[in-house]
Amino acid sequence: MQDDLNTNLCNAVDAAFDQQVQFLSDLTAHPSIRGNEQSAQAFMATTLSERGYELDRWQIDVAEISHLPGFSPVIGDYEDAVNVVGTHRSRTQSGRSLILNGHIDVVPAGPLDMWDSPPFEPRVEDGWLYGRGGGDMKAGLASNLFALDALAACGLAPGGDVFVQSVVEEECTGNGALACLARGYAADAALIPEPFSEHLVTAQLGVIWFQVHLRGRPTHVAYAGSGANAIEAAFPLIRALHEMEHRWNAAEHRPADYAHMDHALNLNLGKIEGGDWTSSVPAWAVFDVRMAIFPGQSIEAAKTEIEQVILDAARDNDFLRNSLPEIVYHGFHAEGYALSQDSSAKAQSAIAALDQAHQAATGEALVREAITATTDARFFGLYADTPALVYGPRAEAIHGFNERVELESMRRVTKATAMFIADWCGVETI
Amino acid sequence: MQDDLNTNLCNAVDAAFDQQVQFLSDLTAHPSIRGNEQSAQAFMATTLSERGYELDRWQIDVAEISHLPGFSPVIGDYEDAVNVVGTHRSRTQSGRSLILNGHIDVVPAGPLDMWDSPPFEPRVEDGWLYGRGGGDMKAGLASNLFALDALAACGLAPGGDVFVQSVVEEECTGNGALACLARGYAADAALIPEPFSEHLVTAQLGVIWFQVHLRGRPTHVAYAGSGANAIEAAFPLIRALHEMEHRWNAAEHRPADYAHMDHALNLNLGKIEGGDWTSSVPAWAVFDVRMAIFPGQSIEAAKTEIEQVILDAARDNDFLRNSLPEIVYHGFHAEGYALSQDSSAKAQSAIAALDQAHQAATGEALVREAITATTDARFFGLYADTPALVYGPRAEAIHGFNERVELESMRRVTKATAMFIADWCGVETI
């Protein structure tokens, strides 16, 4: 009977797959970079309402989450940050509940001329959909929705409550997912179809963002010797940070999940800006850094060391010594999270269920992977005692040019998700 | 009689000095950074018209100047670039003609919180006027005007034609002064009261601006090893440019005017911008450089070497090798100019006249100075066979914070200018 159900679910996914690709394309066309997610969220809300989900749509209130563990500092308010959740209430309450989470925000496209086609005009070619956010992670949002659709097409609904979450802020803070926790959303497990090649993510890194502000007294370049170049003053600080990165990656600091990786922790100089006028010695520079930490590494200790490294390097510098840099945090304060360390029966049983569903969809064993990024999984795993399974389609060039997601991979993940839901939550007739 | 005239002119400058300070303050309050000079130019035009000068006010047309020697490349059009010239036509044509030139454009103020008081709300304290552009060079524009006023107050006018020029674009191209040449303005000498401490500028450097564009294929920082950081790729190029700067300053390359200066040629990394997102490996970076050249050094040869240095450094770099930088010129293509090399009788006589006027105003000999910046003097000296005297008041922190000009210095320069005009042009009764 399980086999029959699985076959029917897979057939239902196949039957609606053209629709699913169209949905993915429509969703990817919304340029939902941070601050601009409204139209994409409206599209998600309409889609959920049309399918009969109970709709919850709210603006994130910093005051409601800023005291919670896992909160990341933000600059400015959240006037434009809206979460959307569609809820299926099980009639029978016979099974376990589930959160199907995905983020709607995408990272900026960068220079348009480096794309082969416009980033927000998705196109399908040779089995891949191209477009910013198609992989990271709108294909996952589509998979969540169409997996549930497959159950409905079979005349079934999950036997436990299911919460379909479309959150903002995953790419910079995670405060969107945190706001769902704060609003009371809880379940027996969470599934997040981030694009990691149909692998199960068993560990993810933590991430800290910081911004370094340099100031100095500039002058006409004719007297460059007496002015201090704030842009060039950044270079020794960046060098010192890379030395810290090297130390943190040393074999003796690696937890088991990352023991095999020589360089799991990447420090990224992601942005820089400085100076106003070519013939003025620049008075200011600001640079933005992303640094990763291992699961178990303390954010506070990491910040202390980062600050120490920057200030020590600054004190070594003639100009900076008298004008020490200011370090500002306004983004990720994300701890690492390792599902592999969750020995609870709930976690083991969720992993087993996903393993089975994956094998049924693909004919292959579920590969486990420790990733070098972060995801919203940490909120469920660390702060809500909820095993969070990160498992999604294969994508390439995420955060890069010509980002793309493999459509057959999305199909397989959708099938696996439908079978996982049926197994985890059980089913009831509509 | 000359002594009497000088005394009368000095008294007239003193009598109107409060008015002059008020005028300088009003002019400095106009935030005439590039593209925003209109209100300051309108103020200059009104001031000139009220005094009875024949007014000429026109928008720079790139097509009219782009073929001329001394033209600097610009990006965009000149819709907002307006020059103002007020002309005094001598009734008697008994003396020599003169251009009194000054630039109305000022450089950006930089971060406002680094100013003790707002840069465009000038204030006077302890004999200095503070404000962006007060020194560079609105005090000079005031000096030009009020020197002529002093003659008028004595019932006199210059005995030759005098052209009072208020030009734009001095701080980035010099195309404002060039447009005055192209429009036919010519005279026997030019005076430009740039703020060089009442010294006579005998040599000035050339300046080249260039912009370096770096591009690469970025990716999620989780895979930083496979992405190329466009910001960090800039660092070795900047290092190589500083090595070039060092070579160009070597003793054997210095012309006589600069033989005593170890580091006359400054390379300034004036601006940088790169990256879109802290957790994306940056795909692009752009930096802006100002490099000086000696008088006599060829711009074309300098550009060739700059390009060679950048491309050689890029070919040494794993990432840049496959994505060579693009070098864009969009600002100064300024040759050096040495008044000291002008042995013409006209130049010698102009310098002698200024020397005398300066001694009469200050009681001290006129100091000669080779400066490490450029000024619009090159257009008159190199392309119009007109000796250009750069001689203006003492200012501090030009292009810096709390830029200020010494008011007593402006007073002395105004007196010297009035006496120089009377000597050079002769006088006629109004």
Task: Give a description of the structure.
The structure is a homodimer of 430-residue chains. With 430 residues, the first copy, chain A, is an alpha+beta fold. Chain A folds into two domains: 2-204 and 337-429, Zn peptidases (Aminopeptidase, 3-Layer(aba) Sandwich); 206-334, Alpha-Beta Plaits (2-Layer Sandwich). Helices cover 34% and strands 20% of the residues of chain A. Chain A is built from eleven helices and 19 strands. Chain A has helices spanning 2-15, 17-28, 38-50, 62-65, 134-153, 175-182, 234-248, 299-315, 345-362, 377-383, 407-425, and strands spanning 54-59, 82-88, 98-103, 123-125, 128-130, 156-158, 162-167, 190-192, 200-203, 206-215, 267-274, 284-293, 326-328, 333-334, 368-370, 388-390, 395-396, 404-406, 427-429. Chain A has a six-stranded mixed beta sheet, sandwiched between helices. In chain A, strands 10, 11, 12, 13 and 14 form a five-stranded antiparallel beta sheet that branches. A four-stranded antiparallel beta sheet of chain A has the order 4-5-18-17. In chain A, a hairpin with a 2-residue loop joins strand 4 (123-125) and strand 5 (128-130). In chain A, helix 1 packs across helix 5 (134-153) and helix 1 (2-15) runs antiparallel to helix 11 (407-425). The longest helix of chain A has 20 residues, at 134-153. Chain A is globular, with a radius of gyration of 23 Å. In chain A, 57% of the residues are buried. The mean pLDDT of chain A is 95. At the A-B interface, strand 10, strand 11 and strand 12 of A face strand 10, strand 11 and strand 12 of B. Strand 11 (267-274) of chain A pairs antiparallel with strand 11 of chain B.
